[in-house]
Design goal:
about 325 residues; seven-stranded parallel sheet; NAD(P)-bd_dom_sf; Rossmann fold; five-stranded parallel sheet; 2 domains; binds (2R)-2,3-dihydroxypropanoic acid
Length: about 325
């Protein structure tokens, strides 16, 4: 019987799908420690980790000879795993693409609408018991319908956001992608992130995380956006230079931001928490029950494929 180490509490269906094997469950909501992950690598055939369970090269080296052959990541993003180092230690890595596209795109729209229409401010006003009643100039926001959205990263999630913006809100879509793309929605590919920033009222960051996209959106992009514009990030926190974002917001260089991810999660800078024109969510992109079950089942499919000697379903 193969042994699988599961680093977190997952929906019950995920563990049920592994019932033919010995599952060692770390039934917790916080990331596993370095020592726990080293022990897991030594004593298990596969590990089902997720965001925050860090596998840098030095951890893999410190683990010495390992029994594990697979890190079946729960999540599409895998920037917490040094994939090259994992491979060098005989470990395959898989992720869960596709199944969280709609949930994450829905959340991008949540942030666009909430930030543009000042929903957070309104909610806080009502909740605090301070609402004095309707008046014609209260909390006037940006009308989203008919605006231009600029999407940075036209992968599966970027395309799903484009569809929602175009078909749902009649928005013009411009985008930046490092390779040529023809999304299934009318959209114009521009040749730089700055060009997207200049053209768009709302810029949405939807690229994968990792060294290649670290601080991809910095002071230059933010300056190009203009004082009416909104930045939304549903990708990885460090794709946006958070200090530059705070400076741009403080200087009124952009109108607001809708953030689901942060550079040093779960820390969220106090400066951002103080700002009324910023919508802050706790990395909820894929947080629907059906999506989290589907992500777990995709991770399990990869584990079962390994144990059955079949090709992995979604290797990275
Ligand atoms: C992912 O899958 O990478 C998300 O950020 C977690 O849902």
């Amino acid at each position: 019987m193969a042994r699988v180490f599961v680093t977190r509490t997952y929906p019950a269906e995920v563990l049920d799908a592994l019932s033919a094997h010995e599952v060692v469950l770390r039934d917790k909501t916080t990331p596993a420690s370095r020592d726990t992950l080293i022990a897991a690598l030594r004593d298990h055939d596969a590990i089902l980790p997720t965001l925050g369970d860090m596998f840098p090269a030095d951890l893999l080296k410190a683990a010495g000879p390992i029994r594990a052959r697979l890190l079946a990541n729960f999540g599409v993003g895998y920037n917490h795993i040094d994939v090259a180092a994992a491979r060098a230690h005989g470990l395959a890595v898989t992720n869960t693409p596709g199944v969280l596209t709609d949930a994450t795109a829905d959340l991008a729209l949540t942030l666009i609408l909430a930030t543009a229409r000042r929903a957070g401010e309104g909610e806080r006003l009502v909740r605090a018991g301070n609402w004095q009643g309707w008046h014609p100039t209260e909390l006037l926001g940006m009308q989203v319908t008919g605006r231009t959205v600029g999407i940075i990263g036209m992968g599966r999630i970027g395309e799903a956001i484009a569809r929602r913006c175009h078909f749902g809100f009649g928005m013009e879509v411009v985008f930046y992608n490092r390779s040529a793309k023809s999304p299934d929605v009318p959209a114009r590919q521009l040749d730089s992130i700055e060009a997207v920033a200049r053209a768009a009222d709302i810029v949405v960051v939807a690229v994968p995380g990792g060294a290649e996209t670290h601080h991809l959106v910095g002071a230059g992009t933010l300056a190009a956006m203009g004082p009416h514009a909104i930045l939304v990030n549903i990708a990885r926190g460090d794709v946006v230079d958070e200090a530059a974002l705070i400076a741009a917001l403080e200087a009124g260089q952009i109108a607001g931001a809708g953030l689901d991810v942060y550079e040093h999660e779960p820390a969220v800078p106090e400066a951002l928490r103080r700002m009324e024109n910023v919508t802050l969510l706790p990395h909820l992109g894929s947080a629907t029950l059906e999506t989290r079950v589907a992500m777990g089942l995709k991770a399990v499919e990869n584990i079962l494929a390994l144990f059955d000697g079949k090709p992995l379903v979604s290797p990275v």
